[in-house]
Write a structure and sequence with these properties.
About 25% of the residues lie in helices and about 30% in strands. It is of the alpha/beta class. It has two domains: about 5-85 and about 230-430, 3-Layer(aba) Sandwich (Aminopeptidase); about 90-215, Aminopeptidase i, Domain 2. Helix 2 (about 25-35) runs parallel beside helix 4 (about 235-250) and helix 7 packs across helix 9 (about 420-430). The protein is globular and about 65 Å long.
């Protein structure tokens, strides 16, 4: 095995992914790391007056964290890293217990852009959160996970479908319900199983946000183990890099000259239109309140934004060796060549020349490589939270990402060095160097 300069970072990334099968677990994992580094959680109902140092706010599958140096003025500019916690997957329906032909099955709904064939014949567990009865009628929330092979979406044998290799699309409505037992469906059976795994009484469960996840652990691939293979690389690679960079900025020898911020939103894969998505006022309200809590005025808030810079970090496409014609022939990022800077003149990405200059200068100072990315003109371009953040806050934004293959698959792939390169560049940006 060839040693990789960022292997220790990637080892830690794989541990982060293993601990985070749902957006709610991503937030919990990030919060745990931040608290270990001395950050404290602030509630919306708390008094934030005078709050400096490391702070964070969590709400369901979203987290906003920031670090205020002790002597920082109220108008200190923000350095924001924007990411998202969700990944395309299969989510459990409100009335999940179903079945046919002597099989008990689970009803699921398709979340985001899922390549459904990648979810076939995989061993699946369940994760998410339960909303439970609490004291005085106030609901409480509990994270849950069954991290064992409980479910499977079986593929139809080729003997019964000779056209399976001819690109016939999977029927999204009829053939996606996973099997998990034999017999007639039993109402409430899944709920009882999930509640028991969390040590809760099923009668106390009022609602849930549950989803399926591949239980195969992440790992390394390739002749020299130069690739990472894992579920949810999109976009836990970026969340993990952002947490790492924020902790580095807060605990490093050189204190930041800016206010570094990590914004990890939920629901990016379905448009970000929720209370915890990038289209919500969550980031704006938290940052504005952090300024006023330090005695800042409306003028200080405007000055902090005027000097702000945002990196929108989301997975990117490496050139596919079997479909190179789907990529721009002059922009072909490869794994371990560094993060890509994503450009789209129609503003599906928010990158402009100023953003490129800031990011690439930081890459140079960090000693990390980078690569340009632009979509083939004949192919529609994806997007990220960058344009939403730029439009809402009016700050210079650059869209970047670690290049990989099998994006949105149940199991994705990237280079072993690139997550560490991204974290190094983000650390440089967050410290204001």
């Amino acid at each position: 095995m060839t040693p990789a300069p960022h292997r220790s970072h990637t080892d830690d990334l794989l541990a982060f992914i293993t601990a985070s099968p749902s957006p709610y677990h991503v937030v919990a994992s990030a919060a745990q790391r931040l608290e270990k580094a001395g950050f404290r959680e602030l509630r919306g109902t708390d008094d934030w007056t005078g709050a400096t140092g490391g702070c964070f706010v969590s709400r369901a599958g979203a987290l906003i964290a920031w670090y205020v140096p002790e002597d920082a003025p109220a108008h200190a500019p923000f350095r924001i890293v924007g990411t998202h916690t969700d990944s395309p997957n299969l989510r459990v329906k409100p009335a999940p217990d179903t079945g046919t032909a002597g099989w008990r099955q689970i009803g699921v709904e398709i979340y985001g852009g899922v390549p459904l064939n990648t979810w076939l014949d995989r061993d699946l567990g369940i994760s998410g959160r339960l909303a439970l009865r609490g004291p005085h009628g106030t609901p409480r929330s509990r994270l849950v996970r069954i991290d064992e092979p409980l479910l499977r979406v079986p593929q139809l044998a080729i003997h019964l479908d000779r056209s399976v290799n001819e690109g016939v699309a999977l029927d999204r409505q009829r053939h996606i319900a996973p099997v998990w037992a034999l017999g007639e469906p039993r109402e409430g059976e899944l709920l009882r199983r999930v509640a028991a795994s969390a040590g809760e009484d099923p009668a106390d469960v009022l609602a849930w946000d549950l989803m399926l996840h591949d239980v195969q652990p992440p790992g390394y691939l390739g002749a020299d183990r130069e690739f990472v293979v894992a579920s949810r690389l999109d976009n836990q690679v970026s969340v993990h890099a952002g947490v790492t960079a924020l902790v580095n900025a807060a605990t490093g020898a050189a204190r930041p000259s800016v206010v570094p911020v990590l914004a990890a939103f939920d629901h990016e894969e379905v448009g970000s239109g929720s209370e915890t998505g990038a289209q919500s006022p969550l980031l704006e309200r938290v940052l504005s309140r952090s300024v006023s809590a330090r005695g800042g005025s409306g003028e200080d808030w405007s000055r902090a934004l005027a000097g702000a810079f945002c990196v929108s970090a989301d997975m990117a496409h490496a050139v596919h060796p079997n479909y190179a014609d789907r990529h721009d022939p002059d922009h072909c990022p490869l794994p371990n060549g560094g993060p890509t800077v994503k450009v789209n003149v129609n503003q599906r990405y928010a990158t402009d020349s100023t953003g490129i200059a800031v990011f690439t200068a930081a890459a140079e100072r960090a000693g990390a490589p980078w690569q340009p990315f632009v979509s083939n003109n004949a192919m529609p371009c994806g997007t990220s939270i960058g344009p939403l953040t730029a439009a809402r806050l009016g700050v210079t934004t650059v869209d970047v990402g670690v290049p990989g293959l099998s994006m949105h698959s149940a199991r994705e792939m990237c280079g072993v060095d690139d997550p560490g390169h991204l974290a190094a560049i983000l650390t440089t940006i967050m410290t204001g160097e």
